[in-house]
Amino acid sequence: MTKCSYANDGHAQGHVRDMFHVVIEKFFDWEPPDREPTVEFEGREIPISAACSLLWNCSDILPSNWRATFTDYDYGELNTYASAARCIKKLITRQNDKMDAFINATIRLG
Q1: Which residues lie across from 80 on neighbouring strands?
Q2: How far is 23 from 11, CA to CA, in rounded Å?
Q3: Partners of 18 in the beta sheet?
Q4: What b-and-e string marks burial along 73-86, b requiring 16 or more CB atoms within 10 Å of the CB?
Q5: CA 69 to CA 75: how far, in whole Å?
Q6: What angle in degrees, to the nearest 10, is found between the helix axes of 14-29 and 81-109?
Q7: What residue ranges do the domains of the chain occupy?
Q8: pTM of the predicted model, to two decimals?
Q9: Phi and psi for 28 in degrees, rounded to 5?
Q10: Contact 85, 55 (CB under 8 A)
Q11: Phi and psi (nearest 5°) for 7?
Q12: CA 89 to CA 86: how far, in whole Å?
């Protein structure tokens, strides 16, 4: 699967990195089964999973305060925006899969 990226030659523009900081905050504040949070990007709301795709290839170093957020939650050391974006996207996918399984089981029991 090809990922869209705002990271030219591995570098993302400042507004894209700033948006991703909001993604990190919203992800860690998210309480499923609430809907996946959204973030504003270039004048429109997009799901945080879509926002992660924008930094898929970004080799910029994630600031230490944001790296510490992942370490605090035992997600390991993530040094770049790309590694953090891939981690969040993977965790969102897992959460959505769990919700789908729960909904399907509920429907079968109903």
Answers
A1: 61
A2: 18
A3: none
A4: eeeeebebbbbbbb
A5: 9
A6: 40
A7: 7-109
A8: 0.81
A9: -75, -15
A10: yes
A11: -95, 100
A12: 5
Task: Answer whether 42's CB lies under 8 Å from 52's CB.
Answer: no
In the DSSP assignment, the letter for residue 38 is E
Query: Which of 16, 59, 70, 62 shows the shortest CA–CA distance to 40?
Result: 16
C-alpha–C-alpha distance, residues 4 and 49, integer Å? 12
User: In 3D, which of 30, 54, 57 has the Cα closest to residue 40?
Assistant: 54
Name which of 61, 65, 49 is nearest 3 in CA terms.
Answer: 49
Percent of the chain with pLDDT over 70: 88
The string of pLDDT tens digits covering residues 64-98 is: 999 888 877 777 778 999 999 999 999 999 888 87
Token pair listed for 47: 């799901």
96's tokens: 């959505």
